[in-house]
């Protein structure tokens, strides 16, 4: 054994002896501390850590637990809420439907609100509108273009239902005729002697363009028929509106445009003129509404569905026509909507009135063309032939009924 190896062995033995002595010393110190420490402290330190507390339940969890414990009471409460909500909705609708709608009057009891209606004078729809507005207390002026139309209005024997002659062929004559209407609105009126003078208030103009036409394919319609239809149904409506725009802007009157929307929304075959006229009027209405909004004038577009007009229904029964299986919307609902739009401070931009108006508007705008074509194919197979000598409004009503019967 060399000296170096002997030295390393001696150093290892010394290190092991020192480590043993240090370990023995720490054991003695630990035993002395354990004996000196109280018993309760030792038990506390030896006890395990308490479990973590769960967070408090949320409101939703509390409600769910309560509902699971009281299922019968929960079902009763839900039934009560459902029936109560339906009952409240029916009550509000009935109250809204039955409430009296009357135009304002002056302190002397005279009528002050003026409404102008432009449309087919003898149309059952137009007739139902101006007769109802006159009964509600408006001074109603009906735009007439011929002496026969003026005579027809005068034969109604209503004091506040008056014709307003307007010659659209001669613009200068039309301006003179409207000048008399402007002066009527500007000057003061007396209901009777010694009564307080009052002025007339132009509240709105109702436009009911005739969009109906005979059924024909595009290749069967001559250029003269296209020209006559666009002139009579589109250009006359635009010209009439332009003539009244100064008065409408001055008095902040409402503009209401009423058009049937079921057939134009679906755009079926053989309705090219009707779809074109409706599209032109819709574009004109949108542009006019955007322009008048800057002046504080509101324009409302009424998209009409299947409406039960008593004059048409009575004539159909007299002719022996079969009634619709789906009940149409009463014309009273349209009359109430027109009144609400006239007196509202901010009327809605679009009004859907009549069965099928909203549904077919959605179908025509969002459903695929193939689905709409299939639907119209079903209608064509079962639709009765259209009588050619009927008025436009009667054809319109029958079209609505056919689509409602087969499409809904």
TrEMBL record:
It comes from the Eukaryota. The keyword Repeat does not apply. Signal peptide: none annotated. Keywords: Membrane, Transmembrane, Transmembrane helix. The chain crosses the membrane at residues 72-92. The keyword Membrane applies. This is DUF1776-domain-containing protein.
